């Protein structure tokens, strides 16, 4: 009897132990399942994160490729623009070189080499050679040989050609070198320079302006005779290149030319100096002389302006004078032969004032 209850108790214990083991096994299985699920979840999360990183990387790469493509396109456009700009600059440089060549050739043909600009040493040497003084104005009288430069200088200095201190005059060119003539009148601050004629065997046209140092003068008076020469135009162009040099164009020997024009209208053999001329003939000659004077003045002005325009030079006045009228007017007297002498005197005085103002 005692054995039965013991067996029942043992069976109960064993049954409880089995249930406990089953519960533990079930819990272990549940834990393992949970661990597997957690691992799967972690793996899925890692895969999702990796996919996200891959997507970001792909987007970044796509953005990098896009930027690189845009930069490449911009670089291509920039290079194309640089190429076009370089081509345009090269074409412009070529045009400029061609224009410079044509200008150089034209200036050569006109008698002045544009590249021959004087250096500071050249200017210093020429000023020393011509005794240049900042307290005076220096006027150079230039022009072709035989145009009357020495007679003009004598007249503007108030001297006749036979005066003791007058510049030497003659049929041939009497000025072998630049000659300095101070103005003898009291308080005058002008020094006149008689310059050898251009176009002589010793002085070629293109060499004239630079070799004689005309660039140091404050004013240049270009004397012309029957026609405007290439050497005259070359000097005028050179003066206009130097903004500090004023230039006057002066037609000399007007009385001689007007007299010759009037004589050409008289009968053959006519001599205006014949003391036996009758009053009627003399009156007819004076009428012709009056008419020819008007024609001479008009034709001279037109001819000078036409020559200036043909060389693209700045138009300017031409002063028509003769030495006897110059001498009278510049000595405060009157001459019936005068045309532009008084106006020239006035403009030279104004030029003198401007020059002194510019250095004061």
From TrEMBL:
Signal sequence region: 1-18
Pfam families assigned to the protein according to its UniProt record, in alphabetical order = IIGP
UniProt keywords (A-Z) are: Signal
Q: Where is the IRG-type G domain?
A: 135-324
Write down the SUPFAM superfamilies for this protein, in alphabetical order: P-loop containing nucleoside triphosphate hydrolases
Does Transmembrane show up as a keyword for this record?
no
For molecular function, the Gene Ontology terms on record are: GTP binding
GO cellular-component term (any): membrane
Query: Region (Disordered): which ranges?
Result: 41-85
Q: Which family does it belong to?
A: Belongs to the TRAFAC class dynamin-like GTPase superfamily. IRG family.
Q: What is this protein called?
A: IRG-type G domain-containing protein
């Amino acid at each position: 009897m005692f054995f039965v209850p013991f067996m029942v108790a043992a069976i109960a214990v064993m049954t409880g132990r089995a249930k406990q083991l089953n519960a533990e096994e079930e819990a272990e299985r549940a834990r393992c399942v949970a661990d597997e699920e957690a691992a799967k979840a972690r793996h899925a999360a890692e895969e999702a994160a990796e996919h996200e990183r891959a997507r970001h990387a792909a987007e970044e790469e796509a953005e990098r490729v896009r930027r690189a493509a845009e930069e490449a396109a911009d670089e291509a456009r920039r290079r194309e623009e640089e190429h076009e700009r370089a081509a345009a600059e090269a074409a412009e440089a070529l045009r400029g070189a061609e224009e410079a060549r044509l200008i150089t050739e034209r200036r050569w043909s006109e008698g002045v080499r544009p590249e021959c600009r004087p250096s500071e040493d050249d200017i210093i040497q020429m000023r020393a050679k011509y005794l240049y003084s900042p307290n005076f104005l220096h006027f150079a009288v230039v022009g072709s040989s035989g145009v009357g430069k020495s007679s003009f200088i004598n007249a503007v200095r108030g001297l006749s050609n036979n005066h003791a201190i007058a510049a030497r005059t003659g049929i041939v060119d009497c000025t072998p070198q630049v000659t300095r003539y101070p103005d003898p009148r009291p308080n005058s601050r002008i020094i006149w320079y008689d310059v050898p004629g251009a176009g002589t065997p010793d002085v070629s046209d293109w060499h004239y302006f630079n070799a004689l140092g005309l660039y140091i003068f404050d004013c240049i008076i270009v004397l012309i005779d029957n026609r405007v020469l290439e050497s005259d135009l070359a000097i005028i162009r050179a003066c206009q290149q130097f903004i500090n040099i004023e230039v006057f164009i002066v037609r000399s020997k007007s009385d001689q030319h007007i007299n010759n024009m009037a004589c050409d209208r008289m009968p053959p053999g006519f001599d205006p100096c014949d003391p036996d001329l009758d009053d009627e003939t003399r009156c007819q000659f004076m009428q012709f002389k009056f008419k020819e004077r008007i024609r001479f003045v008009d034709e001279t002005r037109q001819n000078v302006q036409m020559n200036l325009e043909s060389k693209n030079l700045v138009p300017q006045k031409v002063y028509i004078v003769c030495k006897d009228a110059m001498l009278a007017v510049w000595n405060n007297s009157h001459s019936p032969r005068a045309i532009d002498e008084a106006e020239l005197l006035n403009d030279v005085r104004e030029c003198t004032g401007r020059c002194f103002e510019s250095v004061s």
